[in-house]
C-alpha cells in the first residue's frame, strides 16, 4: 500500500470542502459540504447503517470528497475535524480494507486535494455547516452501504456464541448438569476460567495417571506416591 502524502493547503484550489460524520440514536450519517468563495453551493448527505461507526462515516466523507474532486477535475481544500481519519490515511499499512480503499482513492486524487485538520466547534462556518448537515444525514441522507466495522462483527459473533452456549446449558439434563445449575443458573463469560492448571484440578481432566489410564495412555492409574 502506497503512503498517502497530501498538502495541507492548495493555494490555487477552486473549492473548500468540509466533511463530518455523526451518530444520533444509533443512526449514522455523513455530510460533504462544497463551498466556493464562502458560498455553500452544494451538500451531499448520506445515511449509513446503524452498525457503522462515526469513524467510518468521517472517513467515508473524506473519501467521497476526494472522488468528487477527481470527477470534477477540480482542486479542493478539504477540511475535517477527524484526526483519527487523517492518521489512518497517513499510516503505512492498515488491516482494514475500508481504510485501504480510502487511501487508494486519496492517492489517486493527491494533486487535486489539500487535506487538513481543524478543531471542532470553534465557530468556523464551513465546519459548523458540515456538523449540522451530518446530523441531518442520520435521518434524511441518501442510503450508502459500507462494510460493518470489525468491532460490530466481533460483538455479534460473541452474542451468537453466548446464545448457543445458553441453549446447550439449559438442555443438559444429566445429574451433574442439574447439580451445577443449582449454583450457576445461567452461562456468562464472567464465569470462564482461563488458567488451564486450575481447570485440570477442578475437572480432573488433565495429565494425571488416573485420567490418562482410562484412555490406556499409561500403564497404571497410580501416581508416583502410590495413590490415585
From TrEMBL:
Residues 11-139 form the RNase H type-1 domain. InterPro entries: RNaseH-like_sf (IPR012337), RNaseH_domain (IPR002156), RNaseH_sf (IPR036397). One of its GO terms (molecular function) is nucleic acid binding. PROSITE patterns: RNASE_H_1. Pfam families: RNase_H. This is RNase H type-1 domain-containing protein. It comes from Araneus ventricosus.
Amino acid at each position: 500500500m502506497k503512503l498517502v502524502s497530501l498538502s495541507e493547503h492548495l493555494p490555487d484550489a477552486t473549492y473548500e470542502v468540509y466533511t463530518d460524520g455523526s451518530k444520533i440514536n444509533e443512526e449514522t450519517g455523513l455530510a460533504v459540504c462544497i463551498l466556493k468563495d464562502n458560498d455553500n453551493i452544494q451538500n451531499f448527505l448520506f445515511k449509513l447503517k446503524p452498525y457503522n461507526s462515526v469513524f467510518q462515516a468521517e472517513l467515508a466523507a473524506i473519501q467521497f470528497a476526494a472522488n468528487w474532486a477527481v470527477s470534477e477535475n477540480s482542486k479542493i481544500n478539504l477540511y475535517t475535524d477527524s484526526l483519527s481519519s487523517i492518521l489512518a490515511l497517513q499510516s503505512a499499512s492498515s488491516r482494514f480494507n475500508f481504510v485501504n480503499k480510502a487511501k487508494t482513492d486519496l492517492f489517486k486524487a493527491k494533486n487535486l486535494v489539500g487535506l487538513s485538520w481543524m478543531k471542532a466547534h470553534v465557530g468556523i462556518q464551513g465546519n459548523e455547516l458540515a456538523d449540522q448537515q451530518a446530523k441531518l444525514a442520520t435521518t434524511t441522507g441518501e442510503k450508502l452501504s459500507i462494510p460493518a466495522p470489525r468491532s460490530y462483527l466481533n460483538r455479534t459473533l460473541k452474542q451468537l456464541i453466548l446464545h448457543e452456549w445458553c441453549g446447550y446449558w439449559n438442555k443438559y439434563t444429566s445429574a451433574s448438569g442439574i447439580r451445577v445449575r443449582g449454583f450457576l443458573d445461567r452461562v456468562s463469560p464472567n464465569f470462564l476460567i482461563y488458567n488451564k492448571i486450575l481447570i485440570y484440578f477442578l475437572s480432573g481432566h488433565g495429565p494425571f495417571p488416573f485420567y490418562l489410564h482410562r484412555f490406556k495412555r499409561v500403564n497404571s492409574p497410580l501416581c508416583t506416591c502410590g495413590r490415585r
